[in-house]
Design goal:
By secondary structure, the protein is an alpha/beta fold. It has 7 helices and 15 strands. The strands form 4 sheets. A 5-stranded parallel β-sheet has the order 2-1-3-4-5. A 5-stranded antiparallel β-sheet has the order 10-9-8-12-11.
């Protein structure tokens, strides 16, 4: 895999460069001190993997991600854990908290390789394999089988998620990102940092609100609206 580093601190640049060389499986194509330089490079070149610091001059790493409709695999590197939750909204592969060891670095690279091996993923997770019809949800000591078509939406709530069907709510300890990556992306869409919905349950969309059959109303987050509406309208075209 070829990769680039977007990092403004020379010591961090040197550590990443050394780790990349030591893996033997990565080819470093460039080091950039700010996101604007990397943006210009990526206009004409493609890479498999991007090591991206969050705190950068001019344009932050998160804002840089927002400019890329189809980013390469991304591993975020930062000294601050505050942005971990927000970063996963962009389907990043891993989040390395500085200072990180070579062993932790190798583990992150393994995640990239595993994701590529399992097939292409779209922006909201899910891969190209045929959709399954049922899933098992671990709730406490139980494993509950649920038909995917029965799920209305999934909502993050504190340290767990709620899987909501027509007549019941199931609590799961899996984070929302897990469901975003596990459920078939042609049917389930992340529309908000706290909500995934089942497209088959949509009654109507009004402004920044989605109305589901049965009366449930969910907000559409600004970061998700453009892609969500594009997917929905393309299917209706």
């Amino acid at each position: 895999m070829n990769c680039i580093i977007v990092e403004d601190q020379p010591p961090a640049q040197r550590i990443l460069k050394k780790y990349i060389e030591d893996t033997g499986s990565l080819e470093l194509k460039g080091i950039f001190s700010d996101a604007l330089q990397a943006m210009e490079y990526l206009k004409t070149e493609s890479v498999d993997l991007l090591f991206l610091d969050i705190h950068l001059p001019v344009l932050s790493g998160i804002d840089f991600l927002k400019t890329m409709p189809n980013p390469p695999s991304v591993i975020l590197t930062t000294a601050f854990s505050d942005y971990a939750l927000e970063s996963y909204e962009f389907n990043v592969v891993d989040y390395l908290l500085k200072p990180f060891s070579f062993q932790r670095f190798v583990k992150a690279i393994a995640k990239v390789s595993e994701r590529k091996k399992n097939g292409p993923q779209d922006k909201h997770g899910g891969d190209s394999v045929p959709s399954k019809k049922e899933i098992y949800i671990k709730s406490g000591y139980e494993h509950i089988k649920i038909n995917l078509d029965d799920i209305q939406h999934i909502t993050a709530d504190s340290d767990y998620t709620e899987i909501v069907t027509e007549d019941k709510k199931h609590l799961s300890q899996e984070p929302l990102r897990f469901w975003s990556e596990t459920l078939p992306s042609k049917q389930f869409h992340r529309i908000h940092k706290s909500h995934i919905l089942n497209e088959k349950r949509i009654e109507k969309i009004v402004g920044n609100q989605v109305y589901l059959f049965g009366g449930t109303k969910l907000p559409i987050g600004r970061a998700y609206k453009e892609e969500f509406m594009r997917v929905i309208l393309d299917k209706k075209a």
